[in-house]
Amino acid sequence: MNLFSYFWPFSRRYYSEINGELEVSSFQGRKVLNSKNANYSYGPLQEVLEYGLSKIDLEPVRKVLILGLGGGSAIESLRKKFRFKYPITAVEIDPEMIRIARKEFRINTYTNLEIVNADALQYAAKTREKFDLILIDLFIDTRVPQVFYEEIFCGNISRILTPKGVFLFNMGMSLPDEVQKAAEVQAHFGDGFEFQTFSKVYLGNFLLIGKKK
Predict the structure, then answer these.
(1) How distant is the alpha carbon of residue 167 from its chain centre?
(2) Residue 5: what pLDDT?
């Protein structure tokens, strides 16, 4: 993003059958991706995920799974801020989102990166891969679909984590029942995990971190 765009904001609109209206615009001199009611990538959401990542020891991590690509800001954070050089797999159900991430944010320039166009629920159920870190950021506008809070999904995340593996789950924004929701999700993962919760992160996001014992 050049200096000119800092003073002269721009906006480009896209339409997705899954995510509805999407907008790429400038914010404080850089591109961001927004849905109708929420920031999807490269704005405050990126700060939320970076906050969560800062609470995780990345030293032993050698393989990362991102469920919910958005514009790819989590990839940028891992590569640039956290200097993570090992393989990343990113799963995104929305082909238009993948197209935007490649066209507007040039995520295809990152190496050691695999982009999979698939439903995160089905991917977690079917993959035979194992991951040291799983980032779960599965919003449709401002909402995380209920299915990702449920036992089947949590069980599959547990299955595809390596021993001592960690997940970071962005559970939602300003959840009225966040404590109860977190307790339910933790119960689905069971006693084999140690948990940390962080509420009201930046825009009011609720983060859950779980590490296999």
Answers:
(1) 11
(2) 43
Whole-angstrom distance, CA of residue 40 vs CA of residue 105: 13
Q: How many CB atoms lie within 10 A of CB 46?
A: 21
- Let me know: does 31 contact 104? Beta carbons within 8 Å: yes
Residue closest to 58 by CA, chosen among 135, 133, 170, 167:
133
Count of CB atoms within 10 A of residue 11's CB? Answer: 9
Share of the chain above pLDDT 70, in %: 93
Q: What angle do CA 61, 106, 125 make, to 5 degrees?
A: 45
Reported as a single tens digit per residue, the pLDDT across 179-194 is 888 999 999 999 999 9
> Is the pTM of the predicted complex or chain greater than 0.85?
yes
- Phi, psi at 203, each rounded to 5°: -85, 10
Contacts of 83 (CB under 8 A, 6+ apart): none
- CA 54, CA 63: separation in Å to the nearest integer? 17
pLDDT of the residue at 9: 61
Mean per-residue pLDDT over the chain, rounded: 90
**Among residues 114, 117, 112, which one has the least CA distance to residue 97?**
117
What's the CATH architecture for 43-212?
A: 3-Layer(aba) Sandwich (3.40)
Region 195-206: mean pLDDT is 88
